[in-house]
């Protein structure tokens, strides 16, 4: 087969059609978005005969430069790594399907930046808890408390229904996540839509014990309710993550706390767990991490005081 007549844009579409049969809607939407925004516009017009590691590495380098100009921090590097991983998978598909050479053999992934997570200070956490406890009539405020004390992701709390709460074992079981994905619809002309799907990994399916003080709040908020109702609305209507993020920002403003991302609740929960002595395996399972190494790399950091104590051991 003459690979000089096969365009990368066509290979990209073939790869997406193949992947669509194997992966979740949300993952497919992410892949398509990356292909359409980054890969096809830049190298879609190349044919397989002209593609090589040099062109791929040049493409990656340009993405890194653009990422640094557009936004600083891990997000830019992570995005480029995602783009690179998908491109290499497409090239691998071309190698098997069209018997091309190892086109990406010498291409490299951008180096991962060290991630520094923000957490609420103890003072900020106290202010937040006091405000939320004064506004328990608002289910979305109770939802924020739940996230602060269980580490739920925003998509998980938005998908939470009353039937996910076991009042006997005092636990929450995570079975679904809610998110808005990019999925253009030619008939409705909508570019995105909400999906409620199973979590992204097996480890994200989990049952979390509820701290007693949070369980008492949930129990007081539970009557009357329908098991199939969403927790945040006590109705069949959901709150989508984007709107819950807006609510969180307004709440921060009311509390006089700096503007931060919703995910800070999860980081704060994990950090407090480490501070009170949670073992890594337990914390990893509660957070829904696929591997304890993720928990270790993200959250387990020795304090300066502990470093000093350890160094003192050298003195005998």
Automatic annotation (TrEMBL):
Write down the InterPro entries for this protein, in alphabetical order.
CB (IPR044068), DNA_brk_join_enz (IPR011010), Integrase-like_cat_sf (IPR013762), Integrase_catalytic (IPR002104), Integrase_recombinase_N (IPR010998), Integrase_SAM-like_N (IPR004107), Tyrosine_recombinase_XerCD (IPR050090)
Pfam families on file: Phage_int_SAM_3, Phage_integrase
Q: What residues does the Core-binding (CB) domain cover?
A: 6-95
Q: Where is the signal peptide?
A: none
Q: Which domain of life does the protein's organism represent? A: Bacteria
Q: Does the keyword DNA-binding apply?
A: yes
Any keyword DNA-binding?
Answer: yes
Tyr recombinase domain segment(s):
115-312
Which UniProt keywords are given for this protein, alphabetically ordered?
DNA integration, DNA recombination, DNA-binding
PANTHER family hit by this protein: INTEGRASE_RECOMBINASE PROTEIN MJ0367-RELATED, PHAGE INTEGRASE-RELATED
Q: What does this protein do?
A: Site-specific tyrosine recombinase, which acts by catalyzing the cutting and rejoining of the recombining DNA molecules.
Q: Which family does the UniProt entry place this protein in?
A: Belongs to the 'phage' integrase family.
- The name of this protein is Site-specific integrase
Specify the taxonomic lineage: Bacteria, Bacillati, Bacillota, Clostridia, Lachnospirales
């Amino acid at each position: 087969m003459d690979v000089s007549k096969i365009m990368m844009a066509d290979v990209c579409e073939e790869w997406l059609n193949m992947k669509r049969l194997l992966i979740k809607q949300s993952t497919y939407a992410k892949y398509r978005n990356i292909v359409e925004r980054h890969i096809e516009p830049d190298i879609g017009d190349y044919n397989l005969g002209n593609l090589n590691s040099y062109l791929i590495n040049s493409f990656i380098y340009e993405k890194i430069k653009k990422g640094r100009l557009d936004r600083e921090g891990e997000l830019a590097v992570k995005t480029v790594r995602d783009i690179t991983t998908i491109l290499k998978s497409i090239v691998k598909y071309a190698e098997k399907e069209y018997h091309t050479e190892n086109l990406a053999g010498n291409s490299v992934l951008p180096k991962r930046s060290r991630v520094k997570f923000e957490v609420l200070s103890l003072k900020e956490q106290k202010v937040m808890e006091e405000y939320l406890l004064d506004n328990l009539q608002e289910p979305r405020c109770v939802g924020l408390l739940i996230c602060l004390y269980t580490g739920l992701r925003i998509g998980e709390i938005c998908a939470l229904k009353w039937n996910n709460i076991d009042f006997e074992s005092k636990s929450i079981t995570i079975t679904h996540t809610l998110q808005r994905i990019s999925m253009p619809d030619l008939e409705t002309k909508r570019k995105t839509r909400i999906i409620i799907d199973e979590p992204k990994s097996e480890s994200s399916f989990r049952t979390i014990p509820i701290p007693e003080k949070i369980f008492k709040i949930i129990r007081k908020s539970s009557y009357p309710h329908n098991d199939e109702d969403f927790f945040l609305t006590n109705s069949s209507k959901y709150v989508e993550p984007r709107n819950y993020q807006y609510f969180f920002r307004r709440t921060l403003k009311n509390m006089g706390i700096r503007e931060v991302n919703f995910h800070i609740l999860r980081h704060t929960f994990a950090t407090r767990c480490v501070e009170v002595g949670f073992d890594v395996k337990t914390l990893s399972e509660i957070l829904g991490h696929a591997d304890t190494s993720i928990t270790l790399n993200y959250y387990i950091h020795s304090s300066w005081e502990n470093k000093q104590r350890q160094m003192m051991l050298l003195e005998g």
